[in-house]
Specification:
This protein is an alpha/beta fold and 70 residues long. It has one domain. The chain is globular and about 35 Å long.
């Protein structure tokens, strides 16, 4: 069985509806066998954002950038 692919998700934090959409997509990806790194799950208020992003990008097999019209 192949290793589970690791996906780092980056997205604009425009509004709560957009954040909810990203969360829903990430949940669906996990249910389909993708190991998703998402700030909403993997960061706390005390986390260091630059370090989180650096490690997340370094350890990922793929990166998904989700943009909005804004």
């Amino acid at each position: 069985m192949p290793d589970t692919p690791r996906l780092f998700t980056s997205y604009s934090h425009d509004n709560q509806a957009h954040k909810d959409w990203v969360l829903n997509l990430s949940t669906r990806l996990i249910k389909n066998g993708i190991d998703v790194v998402l700030d909403q799950w993997d960061m706390s208020l005390a986390s260091d954002l630059p370090s989180f992003m650096e490690v997340g990008l370094k350890d990922a097999d793929r990166v998904l950038a989700i943009c909005s019209a804004n």
